[in-house]
Amino acid sequence: MTPSLQVFLIVSAAVFSIGLLAALSRRHAIFILIGIEMMLAAANLNFIAFWRFNPQPKQPIGVMIALFAIAIAAAEAAVGLALVIAVYRHYRTTNVDQLDQLKG
Amino acid sequence: MNGLAFILIAIVTVAAALAAATLRSLMHAALSFAVALVGIAAFFFLLGAEFVGLALVFIYIGAVAVLIVFTILLTRRDVGKTRGFKWGGAIVAAAVFGGLIWSILKTQSLAIVAPHMPGLTVKQIGATLMTTYVWPLLCVGVLLTAALIGALILVIEEKR
After folding, report:
1. What is the ipTM for the molecules in this complex?
2. Which CATH number, 3.40.50.300, 1.20.120.1200, 1.10.10.10, 3.40.50.720, labels domain B3-85?
3. A28 pairs with which residues across the strands?
4. Is the pLDDT confidence value at B36 over 90?
5. A51, B43: Cβ pair inside 8 Å?
6. CB atoms B64 and A73 under 8 Å
7. Is A73 in the B-facing interface, judged by CB distances under 8 Å?
8. Is A22 in contact with B21 (Cβ distance < 8 A)?
9. What SS3 class is residue A9?
10. For residue B37, which phi and psi values (nearest 5 degrees)?
C-alpha cells in the first residue's frame, strides 16, 4: 500500500488540532508556545506533502516555503521564550490567566 | 514510499503530540514535543525532502526544544501551581479537526498517489535559494538577527 496525499493531510490535520488543543486549553505559557510550534510543524508537513504530490514539480517551491517557515518559527520561539522569562521575572508566574493587569 | 513505515511514523507522531498537549509535567511534555518533531522530520524523509528533514531536526530539536527545556528550568518554581485545563479549547480543537477531516475526505482530487520524481539535491536547493529566493533569504537573515537581539534585550537584567 502506498500512502496517498489524503493520509498525509489527515496526519497533518491531527497534529494541527492537537497543537490547537495545547494552545487553547493549557494555562501555562510554555504549553501555549509548544502548541504554536506544533501547528507550524503541521503546516510545514502540508507544504512538503503538496510539493511531493505535485504532478509537474519544476521548482522546489514547497521545500523553500518550509525552510523559510522553519527559520521564522525559530525566531518566534526565541522571542516567545524570552517573553516568558521576562514575564516570570516581573510577575513570578507563567500562568496566562493571572496576567490580567491590562484588563478593563 | 512504504505504507508500513508511514503507519508507524504516524502512530508515533500523533501519540507524542497528544502526550505533549495533555501531560501534566511540563518537562515530560517538552520531551514528547521533541519526539513529535522527530516524527514530522521522518515524514519529510519519507516524502523525499531530506534537507528540510535535517534542518527540522537541527533547528527544532537542537535549538527550540533545548530552549524550551532551559526556560522550564528557569521558571520551575511556578510549575506546580498551574494545573488549569479549559475544556472549551478541547471542543474548538475537535471542531477544527472534524472540519479539516471532512473537507480532506470530501475533496476527490486529493486522493492521488505520488508521481515518480528524481531526488532533490542540496545543490538544486542552494541554487534556487540563491537565485529566485535571494530576497526572502536576506529578509529572513535580517529577521533572525532582529529577533535574537530583541530576545536578548527582553531577558537582560534591569538595573536597579
Report:
1. 0.90
2. 1.20.120.1200
3. A95
4. yes
5. no
6. yes
7. yes
8. yes
9. helix
10. -70, -35
